[in-house]
Write a structure and sequence with these properties.
It contains six helices and no strands. By secondary structure, the protein is mainly alpha-helical. Helix 1 (3-13) runs antiparallel to helix 2 (17-31) and helix 4 (49-59) crosses helix 6 (82-95). It is elongated and about 55 Å long.
C-alpha cells in the first residue's frame, strides 16, 4: 500500500478532529494538489488518463499538432497536472 493510500485511510479512520485534519493535509501534500483538485480527481475520473487519451486518439476527428503531442505524452504514462487533466477531460468530452 502506498503512502497516499495509507494517509487517506488514516484520514477516514480518524476520530479526533485534529487527527483528521493532519491526515487530510498529508494526503494533499503527497498528492500534490488542492482539496478541490483531489475531490474532482477521485469523483469524476471513471477511467485512467492513459485510457482516456487512447480513446480520444482513436475517436477524435481532427486534432491539432499540440493536442496530438499532449495525447502521445499522456499515453506514454506522463504524470498529469490538474491543468493537463482538465485539458484531457475537455478533449475526452468531444469524443463521448
Amino acid at each position: 500500500m502506498g503512502k497516499l493510500q495509507k494517509a487517506f485511510f488514516l484520514m477516514m479512520c480518524a476520530t479526533v478532529p485534529g487527527e483528521a485534519l493532519a491526515a487530510r493535509d498529508a494526503v494533499l501534500r503527497i498528492a500534490g494538489c488542492t482539496p478541490y483538485e483531489f475531490t474532482r480527481a477521485i469523483t469524476t475520473s471513471r477511467m485512467p488518463p492513459r485510457d482516456m487519451a487512447r480513446r480520444v486518439w482513436r475517436d477524435a476527428p481532427h486534432l491539432s499538432e499540440d493536442d496530438q503531442d499532449f495525447l502521445l505524452a499522456t499515453m506514454d504514462g506522463e504524470t498529469l497536472s490538474a491543468r493537463d487533466y482538465a485539458r484531457l477531460e475537455k478533449l475526452y468530452a468531444k469524443c463521448v
